[in-house]
Design brief:
This protein is mainly alpha-helical. The chain has three domains: 56 residues; 63 residues, no CATH class; 99 residues, no CATH class. It contains eight helices and no strands. The longest helix is centred in the middle third of the chain and has 46 residues. It is elongated and about 85 Å long.
């Protein structure tokens, strides 16, 4: 179970970290983005996910230092000079321990960062040229939308729509979101939240469009996949 959870965290973290950086940069130029997020919680979430991501790597760290502090030698009846010399020796050992711990920390952090970059490099090298072309198309559309001053929710929906259509995600996810949004409309109207009901209906319409477009892509993909099988049988 831990192995499966570790893989999920390692797959999810780069996307979440990328969205965090994008939101941070866009919030500098857009007041809408800056006011949309509760930034203390967002910062806290990225810190927690970063710690969890780092824990997914096997460090195999064993400290290569040994510090002997014989505090039993401290005797209250020693004279001031002897106590001063003894405390100075202890302070020097503690200071050396702090230096060694700092070195060990930076060594471990360096190995984790190195493993992270190897992990990212492996993921990037596994991306095909066709997928890179799709990613470039998505980035261009998102940049144009940002320049037009698109809102945060609309940006997220557009981002999901582009990924769902170009990479042919499971259309049932968009259909499920559309149904949930449609089902929530009567409840918003009961509580006299007309604006929220209208927004839910609009986004439900968006996700229905995403569902239809993705299903068209799914059918085309299945048709192309079935052609070689038919040729093999002939």
């Amino acid at each position: 179970m831990w192995e499966e959870l570790r893989e999920k965290i390692r797959e999810f973290y780069p996307y979440f970290f990328g969205f965090y950086l994008l939101s941070l940069v866009v919030s500098i130029f857009s007041k809408t983005w800056k006011s949309f997020f509760y930034w203390p919680a967002f910062h806290g979430a990225i810190i927690i996910f970063t710690v969890l991501f780092l824990l997914t790597f096997k460090l195999n760290w064993q400290p290569n230092f040994k510090l002997n502090l014989n505090l039993k030698n401290l005797k209250p009846r020693l004279n001031l000079k002897e106590n001063y010399l003894l405390w100075r020796a202890v302070s020097l050992k503690v200071f050396k321990l702090m230096i060694i711990l700092a070195k060990e920390f930076f060594n471990v952090a360096g190995r984790v960062i190195k493993n992270y970059f190897f992990f990212i490099k492996k993921k990037i090298s596994a991306v095909s040229k066709r997928s890179w072309l799709k990613i470039i198309v998505i980035v261009i559309f998102l940049l144009l939308a940002l320049f037009e001053g698109i809102g945060v929710l609309d940006f997220i929906v557009l981002f999901y729509a582009l990924i769902s259509f170009l990479f042919v995600l499971d259309s049932r996810a968009a259909a499920g979101l559309a149904l949930i949004l449609l089902a929530s409309c009567p409840f918003w109207l009961i509580f006299k939240k007309d604006i929220l009901a209208e927004s839910a209906a609009i986004y439900a319409y968006y996700f229905l469009i995403i569902t239809v477009l993705t299903q068209i892509r799914e059918l085309k993909k299945e048709k192309n996949a079935s052609i070689p099988e038919t040729e093999d049988k002939i």
